[in-house]
Automatic annotation (TrEMBL):
<dbReference type="InterPro" id="IPR036909">
    <property type="entry name" value="Cyt_c-like_dom_sf"/>
</dbReference>
<keyword id="KW-0813">Transport</keyword>
<feature type="transmembrane region" description="Helical">
    <location>
        <begin position="256"/>
        <end position="276"/>
    </location>
</feature>
<keyword id="KW-0408">Iron</keyword>
<dbReference type="GO" id="GO:0019646">
    <property type="term" value="P:aerobic electron transport chain"/>
</dbReference>
<dbReference type="GO" id="GO:0020037">
    <property type="term" value="F:heme binding"/>
</dbReference>
<keyword id="KW-0349">Heme</keyword>
<keyword id="KW-0479">Metal-binding</keyword>
<dbReference type="Pfam" id="PF13442">
    <property type="entry name" value="Cytochrome_CBB3"/>
</dbReference>
<dbReference type="InterPro" id="IPR009056">
    <property type="entry name" value="Cyt_c-like_dom"/>
</dbReference>
<keyword id="KW-0812">Transmembrane</keyword>
<feature type="transmembrane region" description="Helical">
    <location>
        <begin position="135"/>
        <end position="157"/>
    </location>
</feature>
<dbReference type="GO" id="GO:0009055">
    <property type="term" value="F:electron transfer activity"/>
</dbReference>
<keyword id="KW-1133">Transmembrane helix</keyword>
<dbReference type="InterPro" id="IPR002585">
    <property type="entry name" value="Cyt-d_ubiquinol_oxidase_su_1"/>
</dbReference>
<protein>
    <submittedName>
        <fullName>Cytochrome c family protein</fullName>
    </submittedName>
</protein>
<feature type="transmembrane region" description="Helical">
    <location>
        <begin position="177"/>
        <end position="203"/>
    </location>
</feature>
Length: 507
């Protein structure tokens, strides 16, 4: 609310970031792991006195420099550029706390670039020992970049004691720092391995190639194994809410963790086969292994981002840039009164929809597109009426922990509901008249956000009316995802009749 929002309704800022992030994350991890991989290959070539191996290493080094230097730096700058555009509030908070972390990262990045160039241009022209040392300088400075950025990125997920002390070191060495550095280090070795296999699959067959293939397959399989303990450690230090999301409360995250596990297993098995039978490393097999690596890394980063929901910085700032500390004020005074980038301060009949749209942009667009493929609000809210949406918005965070609480007053909630239900879904926007409601309406207003009427044929099969009526008093006890039903006793009776009927009635 302190910054304007760059509004691309059907694309969404998240998709934009993801697009660059996925390439950057791959290349930047590859830059670290690839450094270690090159040194190891070079050493192996010297030990075996093999010119062929040395030649392959040199060719790798060339490609490597092109890829990491050019692509790595462009996407690296690109990602901060985009995140700063999409979430200026979050980036500003990070810069104000970690500016020296970032500065140190740039120093290592410069060192990394210089070392990479020296390494490549002196290949075969320098004595072996010194050349390997240059390789080490490269690898260590690349790894230091990983180390430093991990501190900042994981601070966003687990700020730990920083929340109380606001101390740089508490934030940097946060609870998920070490598991994350470990996980990323082996992930970077995995990237080097899958990449090696892929490039090698195009080389002509000879003994040197076979050795390299076997060697790269080891990097793949061993890295996957070593990533597991760090992954478990990582999950174990997550705050309880984030852990609950990862372990099942968020259907989206659960789907993605399945992708990580399945890809890891496929990559491991194929890597193992290639190790025992290097001729199996055909281009298409190598490509599949490469893809599994890509899926592991992409899904991991996505999960880390999603597990932070509803925050961009856990317990401090919500994904929509609203500070947790501002929430009470905004609920009391209304969002419009304090926000900087809105067109009106008061809601009138004329501007209601426009205000609703602006509220959507400032509070929901961080995660929802309008008509886009990613978390489309039109699809997600399709079953809800205006009244249902109003009620839903007011308790949105209680119903779904991964969404931030609505930061505004009742009038604003209605304006937002009017925009979604009226403008986006083309439904009628009408204040409910205070009369006895029929069961269907009560259902639509209170239950339809999570249940279809037809669900109840199974959900309450065989229940009698007394049991249904009792359940309505304790919905939150029946399933922890369900909010309690706050209707009057009379409404509960009416809803009981309705549920009993849709579940099949008297048999
Ligand atoms: C931090 C991200 C985030 C923000 C901000 C957010 N949502 Fe959501 N919302 C989600 C996710 C994730 C889902 C569920 C996706 C899935 O699993 O199907 C969802 C689902 C929904 C649904 C479908 C019903 C349900 O309970 O699953 C509605 C309606 C909805 N959001 C409305 C809103 C409104 C209105 C706002 C703004 C006040 C908002 N959301 C802000 C992430 C967010
Ligand atoms: C925020 C989502 C949400 C809302 C709103 C919601 N429910 Fe549920 N409900 C669930 C979930 C999740 C379950 C578990 C079963 C499932 O996945 O369908 C459930 C299960 C149930 C069950 C079966 C409980 C059991 O012990 O087997 C009943 C009955 C039920 N809901 C009734 C209702 C009624 C009536 C309303 C409206 C007043 C309602 N629910 C609103 C999420 C919700």
């Amino acid at each position: 609310m302190n910054y304007p929002v760059w509004f691309l309704p059907s694309i969404g800022g998240g998709t934009l970031i993801a697009f660059i992030a996925i390439v950057h994350v791959f290349v930047s991890h590859f830059a670290v792991g690839g450094g270690a991989y090159l040194i190891a290959l070079e050493k192996k070539a010297y030990n075996e006195e093999s010119n062929e191996l040395l030649e392959i290493t040199k060719r790798f080094a060339k490609f490597f420099i092109l890829l990491t230097m050019v692509f790595g730096s462009i996407t690296g700058v690109g990602i901060w550029f985009i995140t700063a555009l999409v979430n200026p509030g979050g980036i500003s908070l990070l810069i104000h706390n970690f500016v020296f972390g970032w500065a140190a990262e740039w120093v290592f990045f410069v060192l990394e670039i210089i070392a990479a160039f020296v390494y490549y241009y002196t290949f075969g022209k320098m004595d072996r020992k010194t050349h390997l040392k240059i390789g080490w300088i490269y690898f260590i400075s690349a790894w230091m970049s990983l180390f430093l950025i991990t501190g900042i990125i994981d601070f966003m997920l687990t700020p730990g004691t920083w929340l109380k002390t606001h101390n740089f070191w508490n934030g940097f060495f946060n609870p998920s720092f070490i598991p994350s550095v470990g996980f990323r280090t082996f992930m970077s070795f995995l990237m080097a391995g899958v990449f090696g296999l892929f490039v090698l699959s195009f080389y002509k067959n000879n003994e040197a190639k076979e050795k390299f293939v076997k060697y790269s397959a080891l990097w793949v399989t061993i890295s996957i194994i070593l990533m597991i303990p760090f992954a478990l450690w990582y999950v174990s230090v997550l705050p309880s809410e984030a852990k609950a999301l990862v372990l099942g409360k968020s259907p989206e995250i659960v789907r993605t963790t399945k992708v990580i596990i399945t890809s890891g297993i496929i990559g491991f098995v194929l890597g193992l086969i290639v190790f025992f039978k290097p001729s199996f490393n055909k281009a298409y097999i190598a490509f599949i292994i490469f893809l599994t690596g890509f899926f592991v890394i992409g899904s991991f980063e996505w999960t880390r981002e999603a597990a932070r929901r509803p925050y961009v910085i856990n317990k401090v700032m919500y994904s929509n840039m609203i500070l947790e500390s501002q929430l009470e004020t905004l609920k009391k005074d209304g969002f419009l009164k304090h926000a900087k980038w809105v067109s009106a301060r008061e809601i009138t009949n004329e501007n209601k929809r426009q205000v609703g749209k602006e509220l959507f942009i400032h509070q929901c667009y961080a995660c929802h597109t309008i008509g886009g493929f990613n978390n489309d609000i039109k699809e997600k809210a399709a079953s809800m009426s205006y009244t249902a949406l109003t009620k839903y918005i007011e308790k949105i965070h209680k119903v779904r922990y991964f969404m931030p609480p609505f930061a505004g007053n009742e009038e604003e909630a209605k304006a937002l509901a009017a925009f979604i239900a009226g403008d986006l879904l083309g439904k009628e926007v009408k204040e409910p008249v205070k009369k006895a409601l029929d069961g269907k309406t009560i259902f639509e207003d209170n239950c339809s956000s999570c249940h279809e009427p037809s669900d109840f044929e199974d959900l309450i099969a065989g229940w009698d009316k007394a049991k249904i009526r009792k359940a309505l008093d304790m919905l939150d006890k029946l399933n922890e995802e369900m909010p309690p039903f706050e209707g009057t006793p009379q409404e509960k009776d009416t809803l009981t009749e309705y549920l009993f009927k849709i579940a099949g009635g008297e048999k």
